[in-house]
Amino acid sequence: MKRISIKILAIVLITFFLWSCTERIQVEVDSSFTRLVVEGSVTTDTTSHWIRLSTSSDYFLNQKAPAVKNATITIDDGEKVHTLAESDTMPGHYSTSSDYFGIPGKIYTLRIRDLDIDGDGVMEEYTASSELRPVNPVDSIKIRPFDAFGNFGYEIQVYAWDSPERDWYAFKAIRNGKLLTDTLTELWVQNDEFFNGNYTYGITSQFLSLDKPDEVLEVGDTVTFEINGITEDYYNYVIEAQSQIYPQTPLFGGPPANIRTNFDNNAIGFFVAYSLDRSSAIATADIVFPPR
Questions:
Q1: CATH architecture designation of domain 36-131
Q2: Burial track 123-150 (b if 16+ CB lie within 10 A, e otherwise)
Q3: Secondary structure of residue 215 in the 3-state scheme
Q4: Which of 13, 56, 146, 284 could link 155 by a cystine bridge, Cβ 3.0 to 4.6 Å?
């Protein structure tokens, strides 16, 4: 009994000692050198495609990333070079003409010139290339109510053939013409490891949640599913970016690593070319108000 009491006393003293030896540590986060940040794409849609330029900023800077103006930007498909126009109303945005579209099988190279990001008085050039891969058309989609593990909403099931080649996809959802998956965190990417060369027969490819007001369907809504044929490199870029945003498992995992980029000259971001196809369905009463 005496031995047990001594052991308890020792534990209490050690705990008190550890508790009292805490010290506030001030972490200094140094500024890094300024880098060009690029985002944008070319698709098979005939539309105005845009490229956005900004610069990197300090981690704790409570402002939007500074836009980059007065750049010269071109897209080269190996046959023609298209020059983008700078927006007068959206700083840092550059766009193609409205009749521009990408062609599957071509490699698109984005070139950015006439910039001095590091302020050394020497103009820099940045380039990135992306192959525009084809994608099989979607036969149809089906919307079904979803109720599992306390999560309620709708799932979009897709009916389509997958090619016998290795493929990588991005999936997007649109409601009444408005893109719902408009951030990198909401973008679904998938490889065809489990259905390569087969028909999908209604594979679930998107979820809409009742917890998000813009995803709550009403009778008569048009729901559109968009499939993108992307490259393996862009697929890995999205996975890496999302892994840095979402909580890590295990809790005490390794430190975050730099996310890949396909730009040279220390630029950050990713330029991607991809093909796309869409299919739509109408939300009916049995979908919006399923029997409980």
A1: Sandwich (2.60)
A2: ebebbbebbbbebeebeebebebbeeee
A3: helix
A4: 146
Q: In the predicted model, what is the mean pLDDT of residues 119-127? A: 95
Chain mean position to CA 108: 20
Q: Do domains 36-131 and 138-230+275-288 have the same CATH topology?
A: yes
Digit-coded pLDDT (tens) for 83-95: 999 999 999 999 9
pLDDT for 252: 52
CATH code for the part of the protein at 138-230+275-288: 2.60.40
Residues 6+ apart with CB under 8 A from 168: 133, 189, 190, 191, 192, 229, 230, 231, 232, 234, 235
Domain boundaries, the chain: 36-131, 138-230+275-288
Report the alpha-carbon distance of residue 249 to residue 246 in Å, rounded. 9
Non-local (6+) Cβ contacts of 259 within 8 A are 237, 240, 241, 244
In this prediction the pTM is: 0.84
